[in-house]
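Think of the structure tokens as a kind of shorthand, similar to the way a musician reads notation: each symbol stands for something richer, in this case the local conformation of the backbone. In the example below we present two proteins back to back. Begin with the first one, reading the sequence and then the tokens, and try to describe in your own words what changes along the chain.
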Amino acid sequence: MADRTHFGLTAVDTVPLHEKVYLELVRALMSGQFLPGQKLTSRKLARELGTSDMPVRSAFMRLQALRALSPMPNGSVEVPVISAERFSQLTAVRTLLEGPATELATKLINGNNLRAIRRHCAELTLAARKGDIGDYLRKNHDFKFSIYRHCGNEQMIFLIETVWMQVGPFLRNLAMGFEDGLSSILDIDYHEEVVAAIEAKDGARAREAIVRDIDEGAAHILRQARFPKPRNQAVNP
């Protein structure tokens, strides 16, 4: 007879600490929590994360390999400063990846997934109306990836994340140029149209809306932001 005894134990989290630290830094980069040109040290981040230096240094090495961070001579790292040309190139890659990912996801999203997407959509609108660019960028990340992660293609998701790590810090410039506050960003934000298309199971329309959202946001940044020339930085092979 099978032993059905339950001891009330909580499942042990088996994710290694270095992986947790890496994922936290990835999320911070993708959601624009670090600024272009910002210097990062393992000691300061380890203190904030409540860890030793080792897992932070390990994460730095992985992120340098993905060109999400640039090494500094003193052992710290820097969030890269990108040119207008590189920003435009990254935007083009985003549309090539995120449009199809949205269309694929539209076919696979079920009721529970859709409820979560609706919630993220409402939170994104609220963040814009509150005028908090940091919160807006976090909610923008959460909304879009709540869709992309249902596309059924892990390699596509990895590539999207890699591009977002490079472009994410510069998205803070979305806050520039709105005289009436950040809420005006909703004029170039099409997340509600994306949700409506997903609800209608119209993959082509969802793809078109997400591409329009990316393109119009990028066009606004290119008009408003100053793009300093990047300093000489080590290029990863």
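Once you have a description of the first chain, move to the second and do the same.
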Amino acid sequence: MTRDVVTAHRDTTFQEITELLLHHRVGAVPVVDEQHRPVGIVSEADLVREEAGLHARRGGRARAGTGSAQQLMSSPVVTARPDWGLVETARVMHHGRLKHLPVVDGDGRLTGVVSRSDLLRPMLRDDEEIRREIVDDVLLGSLWLPAHAVRVAVRDGVVTLTGTVERRSLVPLVETMCRSLDGVVEVRQSLAFTWDDTLLGGYRWPPDDSAPPTPNSEEQP
């Protein structure tokens, strides 16, 4: 999202909004109240409709619109949360036919705006950049996995994971964390595991016939 958001208030005039859009090269401005909570949004299309309506009502002799943001804005405004993923954000914008989506914090205050171009930007990430983030931030930085444990390949945003992790519970965790990264289109994994920690007491896989079974704690004398 864009964090440095240009905003308007209910009493901001048509002319002032036009100047904001032109000066900052944005397609819309959220309208906020005294607590910086979005109450609406005014887009270029709203200004065009307002001016076209004035021309039609006044026989083409109208000058620039005179309405305020209160009259021009689309309201109520649809908002997003900062922790939303790319897919969820895109789905809301698609269903609502929205070009701009204000982002609010837990108190409903404006923290940023997501545009359609923002959604496309992560898709333009280089495959090698994605691979480095998976290796450095996910596998080594977050999960502390040995560097040789998981092999990562990325092509056109599709991530392929092979190798062996120690615990079975790590397999879905690795997949989920990789899938959440910007630019990742799909995750394909064929990860094996050494220890099944999802069962009581656990067991090794594949089983080692030469090793004695590991008893559950309840079976200890």
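Compare your description with these statements about the second chain. The CA atoms of residues 179 and 187 lie 6 Å apart.
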